[in-house]
Specification:
Elements lengths: L5 H8 L4 E5 L4 E4 H18 L7 E5 L4 H13 L2 E4 L6 H11 L3 E4 L4 H7 L7 E4 L9 E2 H8 L14 E6 L9 E5 H14 L7 E4 L6 H14 L2 E4 L5 H10 L4 E4 L1 H9 L13 E4 L6 H8 L5 E3 L11 E2 L2 H6 L6 E2 L4 E5 L12 E6 L11 H7 L6 E9 L5 E6 L4 E3 L2 E3 L1 H8 L5 E11 L3 E10 L7 H9 L10 E4 L13 H12 L5
Parallel strand pairs: 1-11, 3-4, 3-5, 5-6, 6-7, 10-11, 12-13, 13-14, 24-25
Antiparallel strand pairs: 1-2, 8-9, 15-16, 17-18, 18-19, 19-20, 21-22, 23-24
Helix pairs in contact: 1-2, 1-8, 2-3, 2-6, 4-5, 7-8
Length: 515
């Protein structure tokens, strides 16, 4: 029966292979060692704390080896891990803690202050410190692990639909929702990504994105463990350390988000970085500006763009290295056993290269939202199709290109306008570093597009020049009717532009129905 304990399966097959390198110290761990520490973590949670199958435990921690132990412990025990965002305030965390109904919360020393502020706001029966306890009565993880090590451990049998994790969405459009991730979804992420992305047992991948996010877990932790490669785990993102690691550990496949790729490109160490081991780089989490692709390709590196979201797994499409060059801007074709549809607003399938909302169905789709049956029904229909909220086109060869978020689409004069298409053209201007287009109220047209643009450092750019450039590439009705220059765009931890903040700023300055 399929289950999410891919670490246990890998340790059975290649126990002596190095599976983890901890970048902070250079410590190396075999798959046997990783599996043993994950089993001891499971013993602490299940046997010493008495958590029953289905109970939820929170994890508030930066990247560290214990994070992996606690994640894979869920796969071995039938418990449900709830990774908590490290950038959230105590009040934001309290909402998730109460919503998930946590029986225990494990935290690292960096969040001792947060935990002290959180404790009065959230009813958690058991608090466990990975480092020094934040308050009297909190348990010490190390002591519990040592106590649990003496007893034999047996994995709790779990089925494909048993819950493994609750991954809370960022909440940029409202209160966070807990995405219900079953064992089947995690196992399929590892298997399908390995197949479609053609991962190899000799692959080495650095992980410097936060593990509390689906992106860190799904690309590439679970797939690399599935194939038996090596993960180099970073405590956080440091461009110099990343480039040094890529060369020293002979990294082969590297995932980042557009913001990270930009910072890596601009860091002084990039020019001398040893990239000879890299097979390809891949970006996800947000639309990828083409200038970044071109800059890395200039170093002779293949650069792909991925697509996914927490609810359907972070890896849903694939393309070859050759296709990543010939079809820049595309996200590729659906992964094996992934069905995709494009649907118009009237519910009928889009025709030809018509834009439609992307719907996905397959073994990588979640069970819905924790405690929110109405939200689940709105996103996941009875036939298993999940509404992604993203708009896309499909060309005659079956390659998909994202046109933007459905909620970001603006209707100007009765015509649909897709901001992602406009942003892609604006980013081709040699003086533009970043751009986002949002719809704002307009007394005549209903909505109009406003472009928020970040010029490249040292460049002088005005709205007239930029719009003249865009006019040669876009139909007139698509052109932004205003341009706002900014030093930076607000982004989430995973690189998505917070368009609501830009829209609110415009309305606050110009009114709710400005022309």
């Amino acid at each position: 029966m399929i289950h999410a304990d891919v670490l246990g399966e890998r340790a059975r097959l290649t126990p002596g292979k190095t599976g983890l390198v901890w970048a902070a110290t250079g410590a190396r761990f075999t798959y046997r060692q990783m599996d043993e520490t994950a089993a001891r973590a499971g013993a602490v949670l299940r046997d010493r704390l008495g958590l029953a199958k289905g109970a939820r435990y929170g994890l508030l921690s930066h990247n560290r080896p214990e994070f992996l132990d606690l994640f894979f412990a869920a796969a071995k025990t039938g418990l449900v891990v709830v990774p908590l965002g490290t950038r959230l305030t105590p009040r934001e965390l309290a909402f998730i803690v109460e919503d998930a109904g946590l029986s225990a919360l494990v935290y690292d020393g960096a969040f001792a202050g947060t935990v002290r502020d959180l404790a009065p706001l959230a009813d958690v029966p058991t608090w466990i410190a990975l480092d020094e306890p934040a308050a009297p009565g909190h348990l010490r993880w190390g002591a519990e692990v040592r106590a649990a090590a003496a007893a034999p451990f047996e994995r709790t049998p779990c089925g494909p639909e048993d819950l493994l994790a609750l991954l809370y969405t960022s909440g940029t459009t409202g209160k966070p929702k807990g995405v219900m991730v079953p064992h089947r979804m995690v196992a399929w992420n590892g298997l399908a990504t390995t197949i479609a992305w053609q991962l190899r047992e000799e692959d080495v991948s650095p992980i410097f994105t936060p593990l509390y996010h689906a992106g860190g877990l799904g690309a590439f932790l679970v797939p690399i463990v599935t194939i038996g490669g090596t993960v180099v785990l970073h405590a956080g993102f440091d461009p110099e350390e990343v480039w040094r690691t890529v060369g020293a550990e002979r990294c082969t496949v590297v995932l980042g988000v557009p913001t990270i790729w930009k910072l890596l490109l601009e860091h002084p160490s990039f020019a001398a970085a040893d990239l000879s081991s890299v097979r390809w780089l891949i970006s996800g989490g947000a639309p990828l500006p083409l200038y970044l692709v071109e800059a890395y390709q200039a170093r002779g590196i293949a650069f792909k763009q991925g697509y996914g979201l927490t609810e359907v797994g972070v890896n849903c499409f694939s393309m070859t290295v050759e296709e990543s060059v010939a079809r820049r801007g595309s996200i590729g074709k659906p992964m094996p056993f992934t069905e995709a549809r494009l649907v118009r607003e009237d519910g009928h399938d889009a025709a030809g290269e018509e834009v439609g909302e992307l719907l996905l169905r397959g073994p990588h789709v979640c069970l819905g939202y924790w405690g929110q049956p109405e939200a689940t029904a709105a996103a996941l229909d009875a036939d298993g199709w999940f509404r992604t909220g993203d708009l896309a086109r499909r060309d005659a060869d079956g390659f998909y290109t994202i046109a933007g978020r459905r909620k970001d689409m603006l209707i100007s004069g009765g015509v649909n306008v897709y901001p992602a298409e406009i942003e892609g053209e604006l980013l081709l201007h040699p003086k533009v570093q970043d751009a986002a287009v949002v719809g704002v109220p307009h007394p005549t047209w209903g909505e109009m597009g406003v472009a928020f643009v970040v010029p490249r450092p040292g460049e002088s750019l005005d709205a007239e020049e930029l719009l003249a450039f865009a006019a040669g590439r876009l139909a007139r009705y698509k052109l932004p009717r205003a341009v706002v220059f900014r030093d930076a765009l607000p982004r989430t931890a995973y690189g998505k532009v917070v368009k609501g903040e830009l829209r609110d700023a415009w309305v606050a300055e110009h009114g709710g129905d400005a022309g």
